[in-house]
Specification:
The protein is mostly helical and 96 residues long. The chain has 2 domains: 38 residues; 51 residues. Helices cover 75% and strands 0% of the residues. The chain is elongated. It starts with a helix and ends in a 17-residue tail after the last helix.
Length: 96
């Protein structure tokens, strides 16, 4: 489903950017795109996606931080870098 939507968007963008139909045709396409974007069905889906992202983003950020910390610890262990000690200084994600 997502691939189809991206394909249609890409097709529309390519047509708009590549067409030599002039300003009038551009306005027709822009108007049609605006109608689709603001249609109740698309608007509902946009709001659902927005709420999903707002709910899941903090957890994803936390997971990404954990993965980054784990990667740092792995690198630090292999290179002998220590926090506050001697050796190579490596910036941890939470230090940045």
């Amino acid at each position: 489903m997502r691939g189809r939507i991206l394909f249609v968007i890409g097709l529309g963008a390519g047509y708009v950017l590549g067409a030599k139909a002039g300003r009038q045709r551009y306005e027709q396409i822009a108007s049609a795109a605006d109608k689709v974007w603001n249609s109740p069905t698309v608007s509902k889906q946009r709001h659902e996606v927005q709420h999903f992202v707002e709910a899941k983003a903090p957890k994803l950020v936390e997971q990404a931080g954990g993965v980054a910390t784990g990667a740092f610890d792995k690198v630090a262990k292999r290179t002998g870098a220590r926090r506050g000690g001697h050796g190579a200084e490596v910036a941890r994600p939470e230090d940045v």
